[in-house]
Design goal:
6 helices
Length: 297
């Protein structure tokens, strides 16, 4: 069930959360300005009046609630994996909290008589679900589209006209890397790529150039995007921070604290394999047992 699946990390990124809050606030302000003339409970006002002060206070506090909530959401991602269901519940709590604050502000602070508390709350909940729920949905869809478009792609150049000499079949494909703006940044032959390292919201791509020198290229992209894009290929996740090209592994060693990968380049230090990814790594070497060097007692 999709509600039990882990929420994509691109929805919990710092810039994505800032963008969601900013868009939601702007959308809500526009919605309220359209909604006010047709509402019997809205007290928002502009101009030189006490209602204008109330309006500013309510908006400021509501924005503060959203900022604190999203900041807590951003900080909590390091402690647990959020599911779609948890994210939806979190968003609903934000909406209910702001609507509850609006109800209290309307009935206890403003002087106008808007009826019973529960009536005000239900109307606030209805409109708050539109004013905040809709931009939440739009933001999520937008970031999903951006993430999908910015995925790292393995492109086939077999039918592309080029001035490069004809290469073996294994070299007809290139790994193309795009940044978060969708701009092509790097194109590599798979046999030149050694490993990819995560660095917060960036990745470092380690490869050899035409001279055989080890190079590093950094761009804004998630390591998870690389992992998902190359399922079933030689690019395999072995660590929270690393994806390795198993075709460039010269030795898989078992040590006291786990497995270690030695890559076919003396300038690259050994890369650890964490328990989470051990089975996936070992499965790639079941038919290549000579690569496995047993631990010495």
């Amino acid at each position: 069930m999709i509600l039990d699946k882990k929420l994509p990390k691109y929805l919990l990124g710092k810039y994505q959360l800032i963008g969601t809050v900013t868009f939601s606030v702007l959308f809500a302000v526009v919605f309220l300005n359209i909604y006010i003339p047709f509402s019997d409970t809205a007290w928002f006002g502009l101009g030189d009046s006490i209602m204008f002060i109330y309006t500013l206070v309510f908006i400021a506090v509501s924005i503060l609630i959203l900022i604190c909530s999203r900041l807590l959401m951003y900080k909590s991602k390091g402690f647990h994996e959020m599911t779609y269901l948890a994210y939806i519940i979190w968003c609903l709590i934000e909406i209910v909290t702001i609507c509850g604050f609006y109800t209290w502000f309307t009935t206890d602070i403003t002087t106008a008589d808007h009826g019973k508390d529960w009536e005000v709350f239900l109307k606030a909940l209805r409109n708050g679900s539109i004013a905040l729920g809709l931009p939440y949905l739009i933001s999520g869809m937008y970031f999903a589209i951006i993430d999908k478009n910015n995925t790292i792609r393995l492109m086939n150049y077999e039918n592309v006209v080029t001035d490069e000499p004809v290469r073996p079949d294994s070299q007809k494909q290139k790994i193309t890397l795009f940044d978060n703006s969708g701009t092509l940044k790097l194109s590599l032959n798979p046999e030149n790529l050694y490993y990819i390292e995560s660095d917060d919201n960036y990745i470092k791509v380690w490869y050899t150039d035409s001279k055989g020198d080890l190079k590093q290229y950094m761009l804004r992209c998630r390591l998870k995007t690389v992992e998902e894009s190359f399922k079933g290929s030689s690019l395999v996740r072995c660590h929270r921070k690393y994806i390795v090209n198993l075709n460039k592994v010269s030795m898989l060693r078992k040590e006291s604290d786990g497995y270690v990968l030695d890559l076919a380049n003396e300038d690259i230090p050994p890369i650890s394999v964490t328990k989470t990814y051990t089975d996936a790594i070992l499965s790639h070497f079941t038919e290549q047992s000579p690569l496995l060097e047993p631990m010495e007692d």
